[in-house]
Amino acid sequence: MAIWHSNPTVDEVNQSMGDCMPTYLGMKITEIGDDYIVGTMPVEDRTRQPFGILHGGASVALAETLGSMAANMVVDTSKHYCVGQEINANHLRPVPDGTVTAKASAVHIGRSSQVWEIRIHDPRGKLNCISRITMAVVPVPPT
């Protein structure tokens, strides 16, 4: 049974990213499962650090993007929205090129907070980063 409040398509989620950081860094959502979301990001000049490998900040941006999108897909956005409170990441191995793939899975979905784990793999399938994000569930202010 799916955990999502609504059933957005991959195309709808990608369009919702608009013209901001995820789009600029080439992120794309590729799959929405019953309780997870998967996305990719290219490792190229705009996502590398000066030493020629994937920038840790780009990995964290991918993790936060997936965790935030997933968290907001769980709630009724007419009543609540989710914002990041804390994120951490362990960078395990360098990625010089190709496309990294990330999967966000819920660890905890509560009334006032959510915790998501994001695992990022290199093109060979090796884990290169593991991240965890805590999201605050905030009521939409009355209008």
Automatic annotation (TrEMBL):
Keywords from UniProt, A to Z, are: Hydrolase
InterPro entries, from UniProt? Answer: HotDog_dom_sf, PAAI_dom, Thioestr_dom
Pfam families reported for this sequence: 4HBT
Keyword Hydrolase among record annotations: yes
Task: Determine if Phosphoprotein is one of this entry's keywords.
Answer: no
Q: Where is the Thioesterase domain?
A: 51-127
**Which family is this sequence assigned to?**
Belongs to the thioesterase PaaI family.
Tell me the PANTHER family matching this sequence: 1,4-DIHYDROXY-2-NAPHTHOYL-COA THIOESTERASE 1
Can you name this protein?
Answer: Hotdog fold thioesterase
Q: What is the source species?
A: Microbulbifer elongatus
Which lineage do the record's taxonomy fields give for this organism?
Answer: Bacteria, Pseudomonadati, Pseudomonadota, Gammaproteobacteria, Cellvibrionales
